[in-house]
Amino acid sequence: MFERLRRMANHQTDAELALAIARGNGDAMAELYRRHGPLVYRFTLRMSQNATIAEEITQEVFLALLRQPTHFDPQRAALSTWLCSIARRQLWKHLERNKRFISIELDEEPFDLVSPEPGPAEWLTRNEAIVSVREGIDRLPLPLKEVILLCELEGLTYEQAAQILTIPIGTVRSRLSRAKGRLALLLRSPAECAEKENSQR
Amino acid sequence: MKPSLNIDDVLATLRQEHRSIEAPASLETHLKEQTLRAHATRPAPHTWIWAGGLSLAMAAACVAGIVSWRLNHPVTPPEPATHAGPPMAMSEPPQAVAAPFADPSNAETVHPAAVVSKHPKRVRDNFSSEDFLPLPSSEGLPPPSEASLVRLRIQRDDLRQYGLEVPPTLAPRTILAEFIVGEDGLPRSIRIIR
User: Fold this and answer.
1) pLDDT by residue (tens digit) across A85-128?
2) What is the distance in angstroms between the CA of the first residue and the CA of the last residue of chain B?
3) Best mutation target, A29, A63, A117, A132, to test chain B (most B CBs within 10 A)
4) Residues in Cβ contact with A142 at an 8 Å cutoff, skipping those fewer than 6 apart
5) Partner B contacted by A37 (CB < 8 A)
6) Is the CB of A183 less than 8 angstroms away from the CB of B24?
7) pTM
8) B39-97 pLDDT, tens per residue?
9) What is the C-alpha to C-alpha distance for residues B54 and B42, in angstroms, rounded to an integer?
């Protein structure tokens, strides 16, 4: 019987489940969490790099849906987008409160993005490249990092990312391009980097 | 020398790795409990509907009570003409009829304490009396300096608003009556014609 109820819940839209939550349906909440919880949790986890904070914020996001279900308007945005935008607001509040976020001008190069491997002999293997890019994402300025997370790792559209980040689609595109450009530098050999630097001079 | 890796390939690999991260299962149970608890403590929408309906019913009952009380205790009875149009005839000159009221010394006789009653006065034997019967509804009104005689046909039950109750056995459904009306438009006395 529970399986049948669960299958019924699976066929309901997000808006229907949100209404059911307002009526106190715990199964609807569980279903929505299964659908969108991972996205919210992954996003907050990668942004905060702290599992406890990510868990707290994820919980707060879904409780916000429980407290104010009417704030979600299915005509304006998908539920995943709405939840993610709440998560982002909570996350930035948290980072600012705990002084963990240092505003960095996007035009500046905040850190050395050249591969940590020094010599040409230690040319990157594929695994090393993956590790290097993963670390590079974590070291990106937060505005670039959130674009990479949403568009590249979560596979959201530019429009969805723009809704979550409350910025124009053009800004999403330009930030993504810059973020990918920085990460691409990590894959170049020092020789290629030097060559590029010379050509820029 | 190995060719450089493509950033898109690396990001695709990282995407798979990233999307394998699952949200904590413990949160699902917690959120489910919170949902049930929140609904249990929150008043259901139909409770508000019931409360609103009950309030409206109470308000309606109050209004009905006030209207009923006002009908049984009229302060300003409606214009006699509204019952049956203009007076049919003047049987006596107004001044002559009004004379007893004009004299303050006679005012006591016009408004005897016995006539004063908060409840409709039940008309019995004097129903077909030729004399004017002071209306209980005129209790406390000052004696008029001028008066008019108004004859009209009135519903038997409408006499209640003047403080008179005529049993159905004593009178037909409609009654021809004469009212002595003061200059303030308020009736003071009534005489039943038939």
Assistant:
1) 999 999 988 888 876 555 544 554 444 455 554 444 455 677 88
2) 130
3) A29
4) A47, A95, A101, A104
5) yes
6) no
7) 0.54
8) 777 655 566 677 778 888 888 888 888 888 877 765 555 444 444 443 443 444 444 34
9) 20
